[in-house]
Amino acid sequence: MARLANYFVVVGYDLDNRVEGEGQGRILQRFPEKDWEDSPFPQGVELFCQPSGWQLVHERQPASFFVAVLTDINSERHYCACFTFWESLDNPQLKKNEAGEADEADEDLAVVQPAQVFAPKSLVLVSRLDYTEVFRNCLSLIYTVHVDGLSAQLETVIGNLLTCIIPIAGGSQIDETPVCSLDIVPQALACDWLLACLQPSPEEREESLRTITLGAGDRQVIQTPINDSLPVSGCSVAQLFRQLGIVNVLYLFCAALTEHKILFLSSSYQRLTDACRGLLAIMFPLKYSFTYVPILPGKLLEVLSTPTPFIIGVNSFFRSETQELLDVIIADLDGGTVTIPECVHISLLPEPLLQQTQTALSMALDPELEVADHAFPPHSVQPSALKIQDKEIRAVFLWLFAQLFHGYRWCLHIIRIHPEPVIRFHKAAFLGQRALTEDDFLTKVLDGMAFAGFVSERGPPYRATDLFDDLVANQVERIRQEEACPHKVMNHIKELAEQLFKNENPYPAVAMHKIQRPSDNGQNTSQIQTTFPALDEVGVQLFIDHAAARLKNAPPVVKAEIKSMVPSGPPLGDIVDRNSNVMANSARRLEVVRNCITYIFENKMLEAKKLMPAVLRALKGRTARVCLTQELNQHVLQNRAVLDDQQFDYIVRMMNCTLQDCSHMDEHGIAAALLPLITAFCRKLGAGITQFAYSCVQEHMVWTNMQFWEAMFYSDVQNHIKALYLETDGGDQQNNSVIVSSAPPQDGSGSRREVSALELAAEQNRLWLTLSKELQMERVQKEESTVFSQAIHYANRMSYLLLPLDTSKNRLLRSSGLGDVESVSNSYVTNSIAGSMAESYDTESGFEDAESSDVANSVVRFINRFVDKVCNESGVTNEHLKALHIMIPDIVQMHIETLDAVHRESKRLPPIQKPKLLRPTLLPGEELVMDGMRVHLIPDGREESTGQMGGPPLLPAEGAIFLTTYRLIFKGTPSDPLVGEQIVTRSFPIASLTKEKRISVTLSMDQFVQEGLQLRSCTFQLIKIAFDEEVASDLAEGFRKHLHKLRYPQHVQGTFAFTVGQSAKLVLEPKAKDKNQSLKTLSKNLVKTAKRTINRQYVTRKKYSPPSVENRSSFQSELDEDEISVSEEVDQGALTLSSTIRSSDRQTMSNVVERACCRDYQRLGLGTLSNSLTRSKNEPFRISTVNRMYTVCRSYPGLLIIPQSIPDTAIQRICRCYRQNRFPVVCWRHSRTKAVLLRSAGLHAKGVVSFFKSPNAPTAVPSQADSTSLEQEKYLQAIISSMPSYSESSGRNTLSGFTSTHMNTSESSDKLRQPKIGDLMKQVLGNKDDVPGTFSRGALGQKAKVCSLSQSKVSGKARTPSRGKWGSIRGSGRLSAYNPDVGTRLAGKESPQPNGGPSDPLFLRQQKAYLYIIGDKAQLKGGKQDSFQQWEVIPIEVCDVRQVKNSFKKLVKACVPSSPTSDPNMSFLRLLEDSEWMALLHRVLQVSVLVVELLDSGSSVMVSLEDGWDVTTQVVSLVQLLSDPYYRTFDGFRLLVEKEWLSFGHRFSHRGAQTLGSQSSGFTPIFLQFLDCVHQIHLQFPMEFEFSQYYLKFLAYHYVSNRFRTFLLDSDYDRIELGVLYEEKADRRNPQVCKSVWDYIDRLNKKTPIFYNYMYSPEDEEVLRPYTFVSNMKVWEFYLEETLSEGPSYDWELKGRQERVAEETAEKPDTSAPKSQRHIVWPCYDSLNRVMPDAITKLLQDMQNLEVELGQTSDKWKDTWDKIKTTQRTETKLESKASFSSSLLMSSNLSHQRRSHGVCLQEGSVRSSINLSLECEASATSTPVTGRQSTSTLYSQFQNTESENRSFEGILYKKGALLKPWKPRWFVLDKTKHQLRYYDSRQDKECKGVIDLADVESITVGTPALGAPKNVEEKAFFDLKTNKRVYNFCAQDGLNAQLWMDSVQSCLSDA
């Protein structure tokens, strides 16, 4: 029973107290004045009466009513029903008030002085019950009595109201005494109305039994719910859905359950209360336990910024103040919207449930929806009445919770039964069995406060049950069967709704309310009403006291609460994981697991070993893991199972595998099942020392999870307590059986099943009250000691699993106590702890205690936390708890001592047999830095090796990682036993390492998380390794450090190319001595003088001084940034260089002359090196030595080609305008048009504007900048003047006058290839839209439409020959800003008139530039150009170095991904496109082709981009390669790279990040990009290159490998400084160590045709014009291929050594069965061109083998090939018809269209099909073009096999080295190449040696020496003296000798 109302309060406007101009409320009267003991008066009622604030108004407002909810400190809710009406205030009162508080007068009052003002007054009922309608009626009645002046007294009514007592639940009880009987009404107040109560009729009596009356002629029926645990909702839920809609309410529902903040907005207070009530009602059976304020007063709005979750309602009036709440979900009831902030993520219901719930809700709310489309809709599809609909919606949510929580009782652990049941919920098991571990929503709900309340309220097994308990216990099956059929679901929901409705309205028929409303004049009266009177407090109090006394005397009403055992419902069936396939649990797999375990225990180890991999795979499935625990259980006897070493090892591996796939929650209870086993299985290590399995399975996260231990503990305690009662109840067996049989058998069989713990507890609770005090105490003590003993047991168990075997290694609990435990690989896999585990772990004895105590402390802390938690929850006494805390450190200490003994013994075990570590073969001079460390090679994102694309899985592999001075090598064998005998090798040069990252790896075999490394290399290799457990972590760390030291040496001298052959020890501890010791044949004077000169010039300016070698690394960092150009300014008055060079230095100049570029300049006719007097003055260019000291430009070579007319002094001034002083120099000249190609850096920013200044601009004083600019113009003019076309045209500088014969006659050759230059220009300049621009030139005001620059691909046949008509190179409107004339000159493209007539001839006769400057768009802004100059600028956008760097990173990740992915956005082609690598190649090639066209059309080109050493070098090199066939030979390509890349200072060291100084700048593969471009051209013109694709790959690999010195350092200056530029070709000490990659290639090329391209047959046409579109390009194989059998194939010595080793092993007699001749080839394992060589290589090999067999001396492959080729040529000439014989392969006359055919014979790849339709030689040869030298003759000039350029030849005897005989050789004197070459014989095509005539000092008559040929006259001997040595020769006779001497002499004088 409960009071209907606890307090009645009158609250009014406080006239005397106004805070800051705001009105306040004040309690005028309250009854009773003394608080009730059971419910204190809630504070702050006056705030809630007027939530928007107390204000006076000018008009009377209608009376209002709402219910606010206040929550007190004990979380009890008080319902405050507020009835507010308005009373007028008198003016006198106002005035008095204003006089009193003039300063605080309200403005409103001041304005309305004369008028009436109304103040609010509230009548408030405070109750613990929520009867909104009853409260409304009662307060209305009081108001009516007051307003209408009814006869009843207010005191009586209020007294009756406060003494009204009603039942809490159970319907309107019939047996209650009438509330208003005369006994409780004091006689003094008896009135007429009481007479009606004295003699009621029988019907009235029944009515009055559930009626209340307040004594004002009123009657009300109160219906109390049958079961008060179900919420009462009225219509509030239906109302909420109407306001917000289904989806919004579901969002709010999920948000409330997952503890988000929810705020309701509405302008109606009552609606806010209803909405909040509705939301709480649908959460049943969960109860909301956070802040709940349905109506929040405006003054308390700061509550909204509380950090805890809440449900709060606020008036819309305060909407603006809720806008800045960032994490609050706002539901606007009036607008029907729910706003969820971005930062809030609401977890929704799990999927099938969400859909079903929405369907059910829409069927309840809108039944018409389903039949809306029916042709004949049924007549009555109306939604139910609001009250019924409300219950239907609630029924849907009940049904939903039944589905969410079904089976929850099977996961309850009862840990105490007496004195009170203590129950815990096993969350992990519940989620695991429901297969919902991943579900966000349910996990959050189970973790929430509401669910904790649910467990404590509904957990007890013996209590009253309600609708929800019934639903979960008995209707689960029905729900499961019906969930697919919405109509059945709906029927079920309607049944539930009926029960809910009945609970709320037990007597729906009786709903009579007789309440008098105020009369109209009372409501609307405008005359001054009387104010609400002050009530007589004594009278009301009297009523209350009487009632209290009456209640005391009355007998207590005992309503028997019906308690019963709560049914558990059907157990959670094993729901198979929805995602895991059925295969995983197939019986066959379980069979394998069982068999394996049987074999192990029967000691059949070989059988077990075979099954092991299959078992480890099977253990991925859950049932297999459960099966394992069950099987192992059978082998445990009396808690012990002693095994031998191997058995122990296998069992531990299986346990580890099982545990590895368990999450840290252990939702399937696998770890729990293993826990007793790992403390049972053990092995004897020695006398009295036993090692248990737990010491080997500690590596798993589950052991560090506190929740796991708690769940385990509770489950064990439950079992023990159950056992306790089953024993004691031996006598009461009948009771037990009765209870059990009354519950229906759930497993379908009628047999008696085991009593569950909850059932047992329920029975004990039922009997509890019948026991005596002593018995009760005894039971409580027994339970408590059971829990205590379990706590001790668990303290032991936890110490077993948390203390590592080697306690000196603090491991599991290392990081922050626990939680995010960092797992470090310390898996002592049983006996591998043996000797190999290294004594390094034995710490010094002094430290050991400190270390281990640290481990001990963290373990003790962890166990203490556990014990505190579980003991407090399960009611262990304080004495026992203290005892536990004292015991725990002792337990841990004891365990540590036993572990130390075990650890010591375990180290003595013989190590496990692991695969033998294979040693890698090393290069000569390569040494091991660190010996092999056992590692596992983990598969990465490349799928070929993992067996996913077919074939066996080669990875993961087990082996060792070796660190040498040169490479990082993994060598091992695959883990898969099927391919265990293969060898897997993966390696890359250390210098190519680009990224190293630590990773954690889980190995499938041993199930430990290992630490590992992921190493990425720019040779497109990725090595992912996991260190084996035997590798100590400090070793792994040492490995990383060594690797880093080797990768970034202090100085370039630390790289392998320099240290090769020195001891590896030196490499690791670099001495800090002067690094000059190792300089070799450097002529030191040269650099010293240069330094002196430089210093002299720089000291004065102090701008920058070049560093000495010592401080070089610090200086390097200054130059590192690409953006900063160090401007090296030289004083004007500096000494001239000729005066600084002393005679002693002149000799070193000959070294400079030797450099490749000089030979090339001579070949191109760009200048010779004879002294200036004899130099012919008409040569346009000269070789200048201005930079011989590297003072003008540090990064240029010593000799440069500049125009004849420019003096050296001018150069010094010109170079200042250019970045890095890299001024324009000539690097190539077109043999036919004599146009030259120049290269330079971009201009300095200040230089750009002055360079393009209009010459007419008036300048007052000629500044230095101006004079420099003039020098520059002179320089460019000198270059233009050197062109023959310029001198020829002599004034006729028009395009028509310039059209050369070539342009008219070259149709036959160019038609198919040459795109129009205009088109090229357009492509290069980008494709903007057409921009019309006006160009003026003289009197012509011609408007030229600028051609649009499209990138449309022109098909090969459609291209018209370029006849000098130029397309526009205007790319964008921006161009005209700095170059108004370029468009006019180049827009000579025919623009047909609208009428189709001929285009205007005037327009075509525009001047064409002689020199085009390719410049950077970004640099050329703001300059103006004189329209009469003869040069023009083509602005292009160059790719920035950063762009290349980023692009390369992405390319590497695309080609070698680190992990496999199924994301379509991460596919290879998508990533390749994202990297933009191909687009960058396209851009470089495009510019190059444009330059080729310009040069070919007779204009010179100057490439002037960035700093002149990256893109410039790429473009210039490609242009030469495309234009000049010589560069497509071996010699030519080498020369091209040496000249353009090495001499002209491409910063190889800096771009390759080769040293510590350049580490920060990162790896930028500019040279690789160039090689890729060459590769693209090679693909399109496979017959034009003497070298193969392999040659390019070889260079790409070795330019980053640092094996050779060729690609080290940034310029010739640096190389001279280190003495590596002019060293001897091979080191005499170690002839195998090649310092130059070129020497190495030459050596290799003699041995094998690997670098040679058999399809090489150059065409007459010398210029190549490749297609440059991305669609024409292919991804280079270099990026994708890999050979796991031998590693990269670019170090050939390794191959030879490997083969020798293989032969040695093969020699051993093989007794096995005959071997098959078949060989399976795996694409990623075998080298395809080794296993399947191309036909020609194969034939050459066969010939050599045959010759060897026949005992003949085998020729070199090249001789054989050349012989065959020449014979084939003659054969072809004899044949008249076309033949398809193999000879055609070699014929050099394939037609021009061969690019389009599938000619693919490179590198012996598989595609060697040749499908060319060939014609015979006569018809195929194109007629040579008149007026133009045939290309073949041009080309053969430089081929030493032809005889055209042999000035003199014959046989000479040459004396060999010391003690060697004289040998006859065929000597050839070559004037063009300026050399004397010798061959073995006349037919020999392979030159055996070269004497460079530049080295020859004299030629004299000689004397016969020892061993000279006999019978030869004395005069036949002569000597040739070079600066290196003296050669002795002997001719046939004296005459012949004289001829030789004369010829050589004439050659020398010519030079």
The assigned structural class equals alpha+beta
Regarding quaternary structure, how should these chains be classified? single chain
Mean pLDDT: 74
Number of DSSP-assigned strands: 45
Q: Main beta sheet, described?
A: 7 strands, antiparallel
Q: Percent helix among the residues?
A: 25-40%
Please report the number of helical segments. Answer: 69
| Computed CA radius of gyration, to the nearest angstrom | 50 Å
Through-space gap between termini: 128 Å
Shape, per Cα inertia axes: elongated
DSSP strand content: 5-15%
Core attributes:
1951 residues; alpha+beta; 7-stranded antiparallel β-sheet; 69 helices; 45 strands; elongated; guanyl-nucleotide exchange factor activity; DENN_Domain_GEFs; cytoplasm; GRAM; uDENN_dom
In terms of topology, how is this protein built?
Blueprint (H helix, E strand, L loop, with lengths): L1 E2 L3 E13 L2 E10 L13 H5 L14 E8 L5 E13 L1 H10 L6 H5 L5 E11 L4 H17 L5 H9 L2 E2 L26 H6 L3 H8 L1 E2 L6 E3 L14 H9 L1 H12 L3 E6 L2 H14 L8 E3 L16 E6 L12 E5 L4 E3 L11 H15 L2 H4 L14 H20 L6 E5 L5 E4 L1 H7 L6 H8 L1 H10 L3 E2 L3 H8 L1 H7 L3 H19 L8 E2 L5 H5 L12 H17 L10 E2 L21 H15 L3 H14 L3 H13 L6 E3 L1 H16 L9 H9 L2 E6 L2 E4 L13 H23 L4 H10 L14 H12 L4 H30 L42 H29 L4 H29 L21 E10 L19 E8 L2 E8 L9 E6 L3 E10 L6 E9 L3 E7 L5 H15 L8 H4 L4 H5 L15 H18 L10 H9 L16 H4 L2 H12 L1 H8 L17 E4 L15 E4 L4 H7 L10 E5 L6 E5 L4 H7 L12 H18 L2 H6 L5 H4 L2 H5 L1 H4 ...
Parallel strand pairs: 10-12, 10-13, 11-12, 20-21, 33-38, 36-37, 36-38
Antiparallel strand pairs: 1-7, 2-3, 2-6, 4-5, 5-6, 8-9, 9-18, 13-14, 15-16, 17-19, 21-22, 23-24, 23-29, 24-25, 25-26, 27-28, 28-29, 30-31, 32-33, 34-35, 39-40, 39-45, 40-41, 41-42, 43-44, 44-45
Helix pairs in contact: 4-5, 5-21, 8-9, 8-10, 8-13, 11-13, 13-19, 22-23, 22-24, 23-25, 24-26, 27-30, 30-31, 30-32, 31-32, 48-54, 52-53, 54-55, 54-58, 55-56, 55-58, 58-59
